[in-house]
Amino acid sequence: MKFDNASFEISAALPEQLLPSDLPEIVFSGRSNVGKSSLINKLLNKRDLARVSSTPGKTATINFYRLIGARIVDLPGYGYAKRSGAEKKRWSELIEGYFRQGRNIALVVQLVDVRHSPSEQDLMMVEFLNSLGLPFVIVYTKCDKLKKGQLKESLEVLSKELVGAQSVEKFAVSALKGEGIDSLRSYIKKAVEKTDG
Ligand SMILES: Nc1nc2c(ncn2[C@@H]2O[C@H](COP(=O)(O)OP(=O)(O)O)[C@@H](O)[C@H]2O)c(=O)[nH]1
Ligand SMILES: [Mg+2]
Description:
By secondary structure, the protein is α/β, with parallel strands linked by helices. Helix content is 34%, strand content 23%.
């Protein structure tokens, strides 16, 4: 697979609108505002393919990006308080619909803001991924926002708090400064190659 020449495919608001699973998928999951769009853009070397927002919670769709030999799947962020009950229901149905299609998922990249303890929903997501037996990694975002000492401490605390992700690979990244991006990229590549056989 290659990260070059990425292009937007579709936005799905309903499970019926999802694309057929005909390429290995790299799935990005995390709370609203965690830095998902910024990370996707950075990995793809595209300034604004995925929309970066300072007003969280707008995108309740699953967005597909086409790469060479793989696809990036951008899940809608969770934990946005201002969403109505009906919107939250549609969110869960969309996510569960996606994960229950038996798709070719090479890797789920679960994002956690390095400055905050994992939320109830982060922990639920990790449990959900474990229950589905999907390969996943934890990516700590916005690492440039902490000083070296703070960062080290935070990474230790968070890794303990993320019960259910004790044995998975973890990456500390900054979409702003580029730290950790290369190693995440190589890990993703390997995961995709593994699914290709
Ligand atoms: N300092 C810093 N800010 C970031 C980083 N990644 C994202 N942000 C900011 O966090 C906010 C939310 O980012 P976005 O990518 O839209 O998050 P999403 O809602 O998870 O897709 C924006 O204001 C970004 O500029 C990072 O690595 N470092
Ligand atoms: Mg986003």
